[in-house]
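User: tokens in, sequence out, please.
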């Protein structure tokens, strides 16, 4: 996973810069995210516009393992970065099909904002605005 990560339990507000010590929840719990105590901006859904990339399909993963890696990558990006997007390298076979189905479900639940296939082997997922 690329990019710089914040220390565990720390979050800087992207709007005013105030440092907070809130523990991040899972991306599934995004509707209960805390607000900055100084400017009332959401602490986790603001983005710096960057893209994090993770390959979940080229270490001989099974579909089940790749889906677990997908969920873990979503949580990691939500909790420890300000990235707007997560790019998953999924390959062109069964893993890619399963990830697309999972992303369709996660979008319908409001867990992710949007997703699209960049090409046959990569999916770009919007996790923040």
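Assistant: Sequence out:
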């Amino acid at each position: 996973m690329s990019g710089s990560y914040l220390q565990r339990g720390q979050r800087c507000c992207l709007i005013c810069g105030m440092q907070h010590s809130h523990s991040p929840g899972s991306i599934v719990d995004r509707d209960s995210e805390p607000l900055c105590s100084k400017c009332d901006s959401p602490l986790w859904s603001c983005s710096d516009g960057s893209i994090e990339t993770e390959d979940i399909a080229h270490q001989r993963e099974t579909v089940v393992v790749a889906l677990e890696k997908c969920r873990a990558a979503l949580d990691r990006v939500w909790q420890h970065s300000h990235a707007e997007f997560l790019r998953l390298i999924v390959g062109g076979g069964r893993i890619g099909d399963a990830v697309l189905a999972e992303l369709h479900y996660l979008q319908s639940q409001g867990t992710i904002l949007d997703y699209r296939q960049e090409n046959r082997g990569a999916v770009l997922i919007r996790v923040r605005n």
